[in-house]
Design brief:
The chain has 159 residues and is an alpha+beta fold. It has helices spanning 21-29, 31-37, 133-158, and strands spanning 7-17, 45-51, 58-64, 70-81, 85-94, 97-112, 115-126.
Length: 159
């Protein structure tokens, strides 16, 4: 096993949200709102969620899968411009083992009254040295799919 290997990838998701830029940003910055929509799978249970939305603030999220796995996120906010942009970094852990580190940029742009373009970009470093090229591609696709599922809930939250 080569412990020095990592897989680096980036994906971008663009969504048109059915709300003003203020409401779209609030869905990210309000703890109760974000807890409702920020989940990758309908059958995963949020066991813990904490959020201190400010530059230098932290966010932690622990979810339990139906099989009993524990997936957690540990984030720090690095840049926040209200209603314009959020930049944060996070580590992702499965059963206590860190599997990835990501840098995320979320941009908000008003395009019409009550319509906001949200552009989400995640730069991922997969840390698991056992992940091979084909498997890492599947892992990245799974992450993008889960992120899209959360954004489906975000659209419902704002509708």
């Amino acid at each position: 096993m080569n412990t020095n290997q990592v897989t680096i990838s980036t994906f971008t998701i663009e969504r048109i949200l059915p709300s003003s830029k203020d409401r779209a940003f609030a869905a990210w910055s309000n703890k109760e709102s974000k807890r409702r929509w920020f989940a990758c799978h309908d059958d995963w249970i949020t066991a813990e969620f904490e959020m201190d939305f400010k530059v230098g603030g932290k966010e932690t999220n622990l979810v339990l899968t139906p099989s009993g796995s524990r997936h957690s996120l540990d984030a720090t906010y690095y840049d926040i411009i209200p209603n314009e942009r959020i930049v944060y970094a996070f580590g992702m852990y499965v059963n206590g083992m860190r599997v990835s580190i990501s840098l995320v940029t979320v941009l908000f742009e008003s395009i019409l009254e009550a319509r906001t373009r949200m552009v989400f970009t995640e730069q991922i470093v997969l840390l698991d040295p056992t992940v091979k090229d084909g498997t890492s591609k599947i892992e990245i696709q799974s992450r993008e799919k889960g992120t899209n599922a959360g954004f489906d809930r975000l659209v419902k939250e704002l509708s």
